[in-house]
# Entry
Amino acid sequence: MSAVLPDRLREHAAALDASDPLRHCRDLYLPADGLVAYLDGNSLGRPLRATAERITQLVEHDWGTRLIRSWDEQWMELPLRLGDRIGEVCLGAAPGQTVVGDSTTVMLYKLLRAAVAAAGPQRPEIVLDTENFPTDRYVAEGIAAETGARLVWVEPDPAKGVTPDLVADALTGRTGVVLLSHVAYKSAWVADLPEITRLAHEAGALVLWDLCHSVGVLRTDLDAHGVDLAVGCTYKFLGAGPGAPAFGYVAARHQERLRQPIQGWMGHAEPFVMGPGYRAGAGMRGFISGTPPVLGMVGIEDTVDLIESVSLDAVQDKAIGLGRFVIDAVDEVLGSHGVRVVSPLDDAQRGGHVTLAHPRFREVYRELWAQDVVPDFREPDGIRLGLSPLSTSYAEVAEALLRIEALLSD
# Structure
């Protein structure tokens, strides 16, 4: 590679960083000693300084000083209050439709199981795709085994994703639920949420969207598009920390007729009566099961507050800019090595990561980690560059690409 190219790429990255309206956000994150580039924020977001302070406050004051009194003072309503904050800032959802409290797997099971039951025996089919994240497929398989539901598989191009045409071909009068991811976890393909939702409703089916790779980085406008159900994690672009609980969204119009299957004391209409039988709480209270994981929940609010302060539109704009920078740089720096972009080239069709492919990327990925450049690897030959707009600079992306080029040149 010409010596001019690295200098030119670094200079271009520096200019983009200087003009970045979100550049101040990077200083709000805890520093990571020795880190050259962190490009895996779409698997685990970096922690904000404010989050470290909030966790300390929880341990020393809310838990350590107020002790059990904190349940009455704030924790009992935390799943609903945080749910409303995520709904307002990130989902385009009115209050009373979003709750936080379980892992993505458990929340997905609860909502999909409730939707299958509501669809009834006349609509026993679940439409889903072969490229979806394993949890989504596995949960659906388990529910099908429990209920006798039939799985109808859509098979999209792995380098792209699910399209309205593919979904339309799978819909029948027997379709009860459509389960899809808004952003494909491998390719970053953005599904046409409004149109697919419309098609499913036209066929008489409910739609359950997995928002794990879009919440906090892309607009979804759930209420405006008439979405029925959604789940999403909080430890990726929302930066809530490892294992932080997921959220579930249930449109208000469905809350009375949908009943989730894990009936726990916190979802009861009167949890402290502790009576002999279960009676679901009103609204989203009825979608809570057990005691909320307070320690895992406190990290959610800081990133949501930060997104609100800069606007979700600004975050999405930077995600597009970072993705475009990667794609343009690959053409210039890595194309001669046979590296392929396997994410959509159209900015409007791509989420918050870009996946590159090359036969040597398994070994390259391991060497990058050894050099404190941290992307992730996706089978069979993909390095996925997670581009978290609030914490990622163009300079570290440029450095990662140059390290990849150097390793491929060896």
